[in-house]
Amino acid sequence: MNSSIFPFLVPITAIICWAVVSMAKHASGSPKGAPQPDPMLQAALTQAEAHATRLEERIDQLERILDEDIPGWRARNAR
């Protein structure tokens, strides 16, 4: 390798690393001063999560009933 390139390798490497880190921070994080989430939207999401939890509990209960009443129903209905 040509020895005249060596003094430029460190600054070029530093610039490339800085650019990659900056892009990663920008892509993964929200900018500072981002608006706060809407309280109505937050309440709706909380309500939807509670509803989904109740539905999961109902499905679990129905599956337990089917397991007791119709043994092997899972294997017959598997695709």
From TrEMBL:
Keywords, alphabetical: Membrane, Transmembrane, Transmembrane helix
InterPro entries tied to this protein: Phageshock_PspB (IPR009554)
Residue ranges crossing the lipid bilayer per the database entry: 6-24
Pfam entry (one): PspB
NCBIfam families from the UniProt entry: phageshock_pspB (TIGR02976)
Descriptive protein name: Phage shock protein B
